[in-house]
Amino acid sequence: MDLKLLFISTLLGIICCGRAQQEGNECIKANALSCGECIQVGAKCGWCTDTEFLKQGEPTSARCDELESLKKRGCSKTKIENPHGSQNILKNKAVTHRRKGAEKLRPEDITQIQPQKLSLKLRSGEPQNIKLKFKRAEDYPIDLYYLMDLSYSMKDDLENVKNLGTSLMKEMSKITSDFRIGFGSFVEKTVMPYISTTPAKLLNPCTGDQNCTSPFSYKNVLKLTSNGQQFNSLVGKQQISGNLDSPEGGFDAIMQVAVCGNHIGWRNVTRLLVFSTDAGFHFAGDGKLGGIVLPNDGKCHLKDGMYTMSHYYDYPSIAHLVQKLSENNIQTIFAVTEEFQPVYKELKNLIPKSAVGTLSANSSNVINLIIDAYNSLSSEVILENSKLPEGVTITYQSRCKNGLVNEGENGRKCSNISIGDEVSFNINITAQGCPKQGKPETIKIKPLGFTEEVEIELNFICECDCHKHGIKNSEMCHNGNGTFECGACRCNKGRVGRQCECRKDEVSTEDLDKNCRRDNGTDICSNNGECVCGTCECKKRENPEERYSGKFCECDNFNCDRSNNKLCGGHGHCECRVCICDANYTGSACDCSLDTSTCLASNKQICNGRGTCECGTCRCTDPKFQGPTCEICPTCPGVCTEHKECVQCRAFGTGEKKDTCERDCGYFNLIVVKDRDKLPQPVQAFPLMHCKERDANDCWFYYTYAVNNNTEKEVHVVETLECPAGPDIIPIVAGVVAGIVLIGLALLLIWKLLMIIHDRREFAKFEKEKMNAKWDTTENPIYKSPINKFSNPNYGRKAVAL
């Protein structure tokens, strides 16, 4: 079972190792036929341009390999093409350090993100790292557009919003000195069945004597302005309207506010959209109820402030809204009643940089709601990027306040940023391959809700520098059948071979195959390659260090002898299955060292003059001697005496060396045994000496001394001393023994006497009881004889005659 487990584990190890090599060797696996193809495989790959680099049998693709492998194979560093990416900052305006009350700046003169424009050169598989800095500017301008539901249920709210302009201007002045406000309203699409079915209801959709305006989809009442009084005046003239179903057409209004920048008056500053309602919303597909099937086109359709295509286009989808709000850097605040909080919180999760606030029944808390939502939105910066070209990836790492570092999706953002705080982002951009034939691409990175952005131009490294110096139709490529570049031929269409010497249609013919056999009895290319144009191109191994070579691929560099599980013992290299040893090494596996310093004894003699130095190890000519330099003679006289003191101090803690034992006596391994029978016997493969020594107390101790096959000194010692009895103790022992004997005799006599007395008393008692027993002299009254007598009545009479 153990052998099976060992075999399975070994097999798994080989498989795993092979897979690891295969997966890690992407350069070899790519079979790149040009330098440009090679460098697109990955950042680890290089191309050797040395014209003499390839050995016989190696294909052109063998020029593409990992950098270290190319160097080991003999390609000098100056001949390796390994281009690297780079970056160039084109616009790097510093972030604005401005405080409230300072000289007023135009919005376009305020900078919150740095740098603003870069150019990157991307090598396949090699990330380029860029660092972005973001700082919330003090006194940054704000545009706020208030979009209100004017259905009948919002009547009380309209009364409170009529004074919103001046009140909100006053509060926002604490945040910025440059604040503008606008107003718009919405109800519902003006098509059946969203409104009443009678013309009267079209004019006044409210019930009773309420005076309401006709229903409409969206109306831009007031363009963004810094005049709070104008806001109050125009909003005060607004009238409520009505419709039949509960959801409103707010999505139509949001879309128009987002895309009609000129009509709304948006500037390139912080843009806030406050969406106020007490109802749900219609979205894409609901227009079918009114016969509207065309999807929303996401374009501006305002005329005289009114949305004119509500009857023609369906409501926008949520995804469409997210796209347009993001494109136009608008941050949305949903001011909704308690009843619809869950709905709009779900919507908030789908719209980046949005917030939800609870609107009181009559909108009396709308100012505090706006201030709180703005502080929440502006305290978080989230980076987003435009669509990436195919094969390009991007990762983010944020460094926020208090040293907080985020990675992954959280690496895009920093939270709890106050005005004046500065945070940074590390962004890695990586390309795989060469997207779109190497044409430059542009991507943009911007913080959500802000108009500023970083423009990054991507340039892809698709060819090596040596490609520029290629010679078209070069004579080096078989009469001009290819371009000679980067040390190799890049064949024209329809041509193959290292020098483009063959047409594709003649690659495998019998005549050419003959040139790929060593003789008629061997396989084509020794079964280690393919015959191309009469020339062997050897197979590639999964391990980039292992290669076939030779005219017939008959050689390799991995089937040489091994020592200590290392090819050529780690002291040479394998060429055509023969070890070429390094200096001072010899042998078929380069495992024999010619260095004699390891055989040099302390007397400067080789092996103490008792042997020869072979492969760095002493071979003792006298069998009595052993050890690294033939210095040990375990069976020679005096060995036991030589080691006596050290054995005594280590085994029993006594002797002359007990105080220096640790320093002087650590040269052997000590093994303690119970008795002499457990000591090793002289049947080992190495000499063994049995020793018997006596200490200062005339006690004997027994041990063996040997040097094992690993040249380690071993001592086995019996754990107890064997001490003779001393003269002073003999009389004491004799007296003790005599006393014990006398006491024993006395005890025996006393026991005997007590037994005699006991026996006599028992006998006398028996005699007395015998004399007193009555049944002993008279007849026993209960005795009954076992004999019965019978008499025949006819006995003695004469017989009667018949």
Question: SSE layout and pairings?
Answer:
Blueprint: H1 2-24, H2 26-29, H3 35-39, E1 45-48, E2 64-66, H4 67-72, E3 80-81, E4 86-91, E5 113-114, E6 117-122, E7 128-135, E8 142-149, H5 155-161, H6 164-172, E9 179-186, H7 199-203, E10 218-225, H8 228-236, H9 250-259, H10 261-264, E11 270-277, E12 302-303, E13 306-307, H11 318-327, E14 330-336, H12 341-350, E15 354-358, H13 366-378, E16 381-385, E17 392-399, E18 405-407, E19 413-414, E20 422-431, E21 441-447, E22 454-460, E23 482-485, E24 488-491, E25 495-496, E26 502-503, H14 510-514, E27 529-532, E28 535-538, E29 548-549, E30 555-556, E31 562-563, E32 566-567, E33 572-575, E34 578-581, E35 585-586, E36 592-593, E37 611-614, E38 617-620, H15 639-652, H16 661-664, E39 669-673, E40 688-694, E41 700-707, E42 713-718, H17 729-771
Parallel strand pairs: 6-22, 8-9, 8-11, 11-14, 14-15, 39-42
Antiparallel strand pairs: 1-2, 1-3, 4-6, 5-7, 7-20, 9-10, 12-13, 16-19, 16-21, 17-18, 17-20, 21-22, 23-24, 25-26, 27-28, 29-30, 31-32, 33-34, 35-36, 37-38, 40-41, 41-42
Helix pairs in contact: 6-8, 9-11
Radius of gyration: 54 Å
Can you list the strand order of the major beta sheet?
Answer: 4-6-22-21-16-19
Principal-axes geometry comes out as extended
Total beta strand runs: 42
Q: How would you sum up the major sheet?
A: 6 strands, mixed
End-to-end gap: 111 Å
Q: What is the percent of helical residues?
A: 10-25%
Strand content: 15-25%
Helical stretch tally: 17
Structural class: alpha+beta
**Average of pLDDT:** 83
Outline the low-pLDDT stretches.
Answer: 1-23, 192-198
